[in-house]
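Ops channel
N.P.: pipeline sanity check, posting one input/output pair.
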């Protein structure tokens, strides 16, 4: 690689993919992890999730419509991000919501890492499927796994962690 190529790579690399960092808190405001949301090369987003201090087992992760994580139940985040007005569930014949995603696992010690892929949302500055438009959105983790079909939230139980996406 010559000097001209190296300069081009340094200048061009920040433009490659937009990234948003999300701090996740539990119902008493304690930090329980983070998510790094990056534009996927072929559309959608990749969510690199790292959590701690959560109950072991399988949990649901959803993108919710409002960038607010207040109170102990995080209802301030509103419902699932759903610009197409579909029913809940990756397995629903009338779904899914744009904010529906696969479940992730938390280990025995309360720690977990996951890569979640969502092809129905993006990090554009505007547009119906942008999770940054209109002030942002929220990433919400639930107490239980998503059954992938029960409307409106997959029978995933309480909201146990929340992070603002801006």
């Amino acid at each position: 690689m010559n000097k001209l190529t190296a300069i081009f790579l340094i200048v061009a690399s920040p433009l490659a993919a937009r990234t948003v960092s999300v701090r996740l808190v539990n119902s008493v405001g304690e930090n329980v992890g983070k998510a790094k949301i990056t534009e996927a090369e072929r559309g959608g987003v990749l969510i690199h999730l790292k959590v701690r201090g959560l109950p072991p087992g399988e949990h649901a992760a959803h993108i919710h419509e409002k960038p607010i994580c207040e109170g102990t139940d995080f209802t301030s985040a509103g419902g699932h991000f759903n610009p197409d007005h579909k029913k809940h569930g990756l397995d629903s014949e009338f779904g899914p919501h744009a904010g529906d995603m696969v479940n992730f696992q938390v280990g025995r010690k309360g720690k977990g890492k996951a890569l979640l892929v969502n092809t129905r949302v993006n990090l554009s500055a505007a547009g119906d499927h942008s999770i940054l438009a209109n002030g942002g959105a929220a990433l919400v983790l639930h107490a239980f796994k998503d059954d992938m079909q029960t409307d409106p939230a997959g029978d995933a139980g309480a909201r146990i962690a929340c992070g603002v996406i801006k």
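N.P.: looks fine end to end. The radius of gyration is 17 Å.
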